[in-house]
């Protein structure tokens, strides 16, 4: 049995989506950031930091989403979604996994400052502006790469693309995507994938964002 | 094989520098500096358009993510035993620890930004700085638990590349959170900083560094 501890529209969506791409159906256990379920003793026993994802699979529990993605791709090579050691795209694959988390860390910081610190937020406008600019720079880098290919790797769709499952949902709340037409086209290709659509159905309602766009407040 | 590491003192590239020292393989270092324009030079932008370190050049390929660099170096030099390859009983835990280093790294980076990059107090948010310090402490709690069975490194079987990733974050983290409640993490850091390869990756005396204080106290809210 596969059990995924999950919050809609969080990093655990990456795992949910990849499992669907592999045709693996996990049992989902839903949590919420608002109802205290992440801090409950029962979940603390599973996740020492009280964060999702946590994936119970093959008799083990894994927490870090890029590690889960690497593990699933390696242990289920028949799906061809990893680029394993010796593959000419190995370096690029590892790099995109890392890039996905670098970009997500900026989003995590923006989410924290805009959404989770109170209203009005006592966050620093200077830092919020800096983070939004950094996010824009990562999207610009993606836009450049996606000018001449459909997916992050030249050979086609891979598990590295599923790292974007959280990122590209969150990014448009902080940066206008019309500057990045190739990223927009990439998102449309992602949304056309049946496995992605199925994962979205299973995902649940997001509770993070209350408005369509979050501008940096005036200093 | 030609290996070139682009590095800035005390930056995340120190993970890779330390890793190269642990491997004991030949490499060259190109030193960059956050305090001048060297990361923005056209030559460097051609290597890493994001103008950040690290960038690790290996026979013409460039890797800019430090975790990816460590993982790939482990695969390039399997005889050094610093990775836990597919099929190894510790493989899953090793991957989890390698990426756990980023969970530490994110909070450390946010705190570095708030305390140091935002150079005037009125640019900063005391609430955010306190919150990030608390989150960092919580994330380090996972390591404290992991070390509770008496293991010396994040893998039961001994030192590995994952320690270069996690250990760098731990070493910076002690500038932002007190380790009083994390005695095993503190002892782990002591073991790591005593390693000759770690010492070789430290900046030389007297150069301009990112961190100028031993401890950065979160402001009162």
Tell me what the structure shows.
The complex is a heterodimer of chains A (219) and B (221). Chain A has two domains: 3-79, Glutaredoxin (3-Layer(aba) Sandwich), CATH 3.40.30.10; 90-193, Glutathione S-transferase Yfyf (Class Pi), Chain A, domain 2 (Up-down Bundle), CATH 1.20.1050.10. Helices cover 47% and strands 7% of the residues of chain A. Chain A has helices spanning 12-21, 41-44, 65-75, 90-115, 125-145, 159-162, 164-170, 181-191, 194-203, and strands spanning 3-6, 27-30, 54-57, 60-62. Chain B has helices at 13-23, 42-47, 66-76, 91-117, 126-146, 161-173, 183-193, 196-201, and strands at 3-8, 28-32, 55-58, 61-63. Chain B folds into two domains: 3-80, 3-Layer(aba) Sandwich (Glutaredoxin), CATH 3.40.30.10; 91-201, Up-down Bundle (Glutathione S-transferase Yfyf (Class Pi), Chain A, domain 2), CATH 1.20.1050.10. Chain B is globular and about 50 Å long.
List the helices and strands and how they pair.
The complex is a heterodimer of chains A (about 220) and B (about 220).
Chain A: E1 3-6, H1 12-21, E2 27-30, H2 41-44, E3 54-57, E4 60-62, H3 65-75, H4 90-115, H5 125-145, H6 159-162, H7 164-170, H8 181-191, H9 194-203
Parallel strand pairs in A: 1-2
Antiparallel strand pairs in A: 1-3, 3-4
Helix pairs in contact in A: 1-3, 1-9, 4-5, 4-7
Chain B: E1 3-8, H1 13-23, E2 28-32, H2 42-47, E3 55-58, E4 61-63, H3 66-76, H4 91-117, H5 126-146, H6 161-173, H7 183-193, H8 196-201
Parallel strand pairs in B: 1-2
Antiparallel strand pairs in B: 1-3, 3-4
